[in-house]
Write a structure and sequence with these properties.
Chain A: Pfam families: HGD-D. The complex is a heterodimer of chains A (378) and B (435). Chain A has a domain of 153 residues: Rossmann fold (3-Layer(aba) Sandwich), CATH 3.40.50.11890. Helices cover 46% and strands 12% of the residues of chain A. Chain A contains 14 helices and eight strands. Chain A starts with 10 loop residues before the first helix and ends with a helix. The model of chain A has no long low-confidence stretch (mean pLDDT 96). Chain B has 435 residues and is an alpha/beta fold. A four-stranded parallel β-sheet of chain B has the order 2-1-3-4, sandwiched between helices. A four-stranded parallel β-sheet of chain B has the order 6-5-7-8, sandwiched between helices. In chain B, helix 1 runs antiparallel to helix 11 and helix 10 runs parallel beside helix 13. Classes of the chains: A alpha/beta (378), B alpha/beta (435). Chains A and B meet through helix 5, helix 6, helix 13 and strand 8 of A and helix 6, helix 8, helix 17 and helix 18 of B. Bound molecules: iron/sulfur cluster (2 copies). The site of one iron/sulfur cluster has 8 residues of chain B, from helix 12.
């Protein structure tokens, strides 16, 4: 895949603001673009097939006029927003959308959209592929996931017009791992005292990585490591919880004088944390990585996931953690009491913000954040 | 279908006067089941299992191991009006308000550590908690509950159906290998084998696979009788059996599935319905409108199902419990009971809750029962139960079946506003359900 035009650091904000532009350019030049949802699709396979993996993102400004006819209001905001775009015909340039089974919401998205696609063919929705990623830590589950990943590989090869070789997969893993290591240098720079990169910039860069060809990401990161933002020392925060698909929440937090030096959700630094690594069996390495090392609410066991969280809190010398949970959260809230206790045990403050809207940040949230940061600054 | 019918003998007697004799026997069975459980597991400390409602109980039945479902204990807590006490505890422990609370009530009795308060003195430590990982949160509750008990948990993962053929119920009994997709069944069998090995270890008992096979055949036999009962009720005008009777009888057979009792019970249930049909007996002498009840049952207020007979001549004739046992549980097999068992629970929730499976099945029932409308109950603040309801509702409406959606809390009976709910259903019958 050609890396396209080189990006410069100043481009981060604009790439982030229009996260489909690069893929549309690729498509306009005759390339094939594969949409993915969530953080657990093995995009390395798409890269290996010479195609463009594009993580889909909703647009809060577009509302839900179309999707409301199909989706209950309690569904995940980002999924309602993506269905809105699907129904509006935004995704005609995709050859396929890969939906991983890494949350119930995603699985239900697959069934819903597949139903609309087959009963309303005039909408011409792109084809969907369910990647049935299961995450129980058993040998038989890993064998099951391996078979599902081979199916995905075959389907992608069919779209690309040629089977995907082991060698191509190994090369793609190496490229993605190089970008992951590069992102590690960004993480190190947000951890310094004072931080050299704001949380908002780090979030945008992490987001760019989901919508750029992997080589372009590596180049952008190489630029970013030389970048230095002047950050007035303030409380060091971590954002944890529901996906932060847009930067509004980060901007609101950092406007109070705090800096987000770490995060733990599926649009943040944890996307790039663990490399897949070299392996004689690259498919198997990808299986293990998708099952255990990509952000997902179904990772098991929870104690191991929580231990990683606390290690990150310590590593980043965090003063406070903001748990931000979307409205109608039925999942992450179960983890919170134990996580809060673990934070208390190491003397780290936290605040729980529930009922967060995908569409906007309400006044109460703004006030709660400001109060929390003020107390930390004392 | 306003056939002139004999007035109901219930007319001047108590509301429950038209109850089937089988219903009393089903209730007795549930009582004796509980006595047995209480004696063995609570008093004698025999190893027992807590299992998810949709999971292969058959294995433990065949091993003669006492088993309760977390949902059963939740319903007891709710029925004893103890939910508010445990909600307070959840608040104090930091579980936020949006969380669906029904499944966590049993865990709260354990975290509370107050046996005086908990129904039956609280559940003792089980040998094992078995969970099936539908949704994203049951695994969390189970892990924390097992932690509080200091007992092992076993998780059955849920491989996903990739294609939803429209008429699952025509394939689910004999053509299930094709319906549920072989790769999923292969995996499910591996999981069940692992569960058997694990359970034999912690329970110190061996599963006799011949016993399991016999049980599986008996489930099919009881399921055939449930199908007969369903067909009798569907065809009869007026409706011969009230919905609460249908629920009690079929649920008792479902929970005791595999036993000879369940087969015998379903047979006597069918015979009693047949007698009523033969004499033209109807539960409502003034039957004009026939309704389906969709989704969650109203366990704490089954009288609601009958509240529109006198006022509107409207009878609830069907809910999924009427024939889910016959359509969903029966799995015929030649030589591999384990694979048939795998097929039973693998898509249970999808069949009941996923469009197009849910909508297709309900339309089939609407036709068979000659229904004029449907009332759909959606639990409030419960994302998992809400998924798919919108498209199901619109599909049914498009197909010509009027649907009223009611939204209510399922965990706190105090929040059920009976007058308002009756008003909504009454208005729905008046304006949209024309016989
Ligand atoms: S209308 Fe129905 S409920 Fe009312 S008295 Fe007649 S039979 Fe009984
Ligand atoms: S009705 Fe649905 S949610 Fe309730 S136990 Fe049955 S399958 Fe589960």
């Amino acid at each position: 895949m050609s890396a396209g035009p080189a990006h410069r650091l100043e481009d981060i904000a604009s790439i982030y603001a229009d996260r489909e532009a690069e893929a549309r350019r690729f498509y306009a030049h005759g390339g094939r673009v594969i949409g993915v949802l969530g953080a657990t699709v093995p995009t390395e396979l798409i890269t290996a097939a010479g195609m463009f993996p594009l993580r889909l993102v909703g647009d809060p400004a577009r509302g839900t006029a179309r999707s409301d006819a199909y989706m209950e209001p309690v569904r995940e905001g980002y999924l309602r927003a993506i269905v809105e775009k699907l129904l509006a015909g935004d995704y005609g340039f995709l050859d396929l959308i890969v939906v991983p089974r890494s949350s119930e919401g995603l699985l239900q998205f697959y069934y819903l959209v597949e139903h609309i696609r087959t009963t309303e063919p005039e909408l011409r929705l792109p084809a969907l592929h369910l990647f049935d990623l299961l995450q129980t830590p058993f040998d038989y589950t890993a064998r099951y996931v391996r078979a599902r990943m081979e199916e995905l590989r075959t389907r992608l090869g069919g779209i690309a017009g040629a089977p995907i070789s082991d060698k191509a997969i190994a090369d793609a893993i190496a490229s993605h791992d190089a970008a992951r290591r590069g992102f590690g240098t960004i993480v190190a720079r947000r951890r310094t005292t004072p931080p050299a990169i704001s949380g908002t910039t780090a979030l945008r860069l992490a987001g760019c990585g989901q919508v750029l060809p992997v080589d372009a990401l590596a180049a952008l990161i190489a630029e970013a490591v030389t970048h230095h933002e002047t950050i007035v020392p303030g409380p060091r925060l971590m954002i944890k919880g529901s996906p932060q698909e847009h930067d509004g929440f980060y901007r609101a937090v950092e406007a109070t004088g705090a800096t987000i030096v770490a995060d733990d959700h599926d649009w943040g630094e944890t996307l790039y944390e663990t490399p897949v690594g070299d392996s004689d069996d690259p498919m198997q390495a990808l299986v293990a990585h998708c099952m255990t090392h990509r952000p997902s609410p179904r990772r098991l066991p929870q104690e191991a996931v929580d231990a990683e969280f606390i290690a990150r809190v310590r590593d980043a010398a965090v003063d406070g953690v903001i748990f931000a949970l979307e409205a109608h959260d039925d999942t992450l809230g179960w983890d919170y009491p134990a996580q809060k206790r673990a934070l208390e045990a190491i003397g780290v403050a936290s605040i729980l913000l529930t009922g967060q809207s995908y569409w906007s940040i309400d006044d109460r949230t703004q006030t709660d954040i400001a109060t929390f940061v003020r107390e930390l600054s004392r | 279908m306003t056939a002139a019918t004999k007035p109901s003998p219930a007319a001047d007697t108590e509301a429950d006067g038209d109850r089937l004799a089988a219903t009393a026997r089903a209730r007795d069975k549930q009582k004796s089941w509980f006595k047995d459980f209480q004696h063995r597991a609570i008093e004698e400390g025999e190893p027992y299992v807590i299992a998810a409602a949709v999971s292969p109980h058959e294995i433990f039945h065949a091993m003669d191991v006492p088993l309760v479902t977390n949902t059963w204990y939740s319903s007891i807590i709710a029925a004893k009006r103890l939910s508010p006490h445990y909600f307070d505890l959840m608040d104090r422990l930091g579980y936020h308000h949006d969380l669906p609370r029904y499944l966590s009530l049993p865990m709260m009795t354990t975290l509370d550590g107050n046996p005086e308060k908990a129904p039956y003195g609280g559940l003792p430590r089980p040998a094992l908690i078995l969970d099936r990982l539908r949704g994203d949160y049951a695994q969390r509750i189970t892990a924390q509950w097992a932690g509080a008990f200091d007992c092992p948990a076993f998780y059955l993962d849920t491989p996903s159906q990739t294609r939803l053929v429209p008429d699952w119920w025509n394939h689910a009994q004999r053509n299930w290998e094709w319906l549920y997709e072989s790769h999923r069944l292969d995996y499910q069998v591996e999981q069940i084998e692992a569960l058997i090995g694990f359970s034999e270890g912690v329970l110190g008992r061996k599963l006799n696979r011949d016993t399991l096979a016999e049980e599986m055949h008996r489930i099919n036999e009881a399921g055939e009788l449930a199908a007969e009962a369903r067909d009798l009720i569907a065809k009869a005008r007026p409706c011969p059996v009230a919905l609460p009777d249908q629920l009690t009888n079929v649920m008792a057979a479902t929970w005791n599935r595999g036993s000879q009792w369940a087969v015998d019970h379903m047979r006597s249930y069918v015979e009693e319905i047949q007698q009523r049909v033969d004499t033209g007996y109807g539960i409502c002498g003034n039957e004009k409108v026939r309704l389906l009840w969709i989704n969650t049952g109203l366990w704490f207020n089954t009288g609601f199902y009958r509240a529109f007979e006198e006022s509107h001549g409207a009878v609830f004739v069907w809910s999924m419990y009427t024939n889910f046992f016959s359509d969903g549980y029966r799995k015929y097999f030649d030589d591999d009971p384990l694979r048939a068992l795998a097929a039973r629970s693998i898509s249970m929730n999808e069949q009941l809750h996923l469009p197009p499976w849910m909508a297709g099945w309900i339309l089939e029932q609407a036709e068979a029962f000659g229904a004029h409308g449907a009332v759909m109950l959606t639990p409030q603040g419960d994302r998992l139960s809400a998924y798919g309801t919108e498209i199901c509702r619109t599909s049914l409406e498009k197909a010509g079946l009027p649907v009223l959606e009611l939204s209510a809390s399922m965990v706190d009976a105090r929040l059920w506003d009976d007058a308002e709910m009756q008003r909504q259903v009454g208005a729905f019958i008046d304006t949209r359900c024309k016989a």
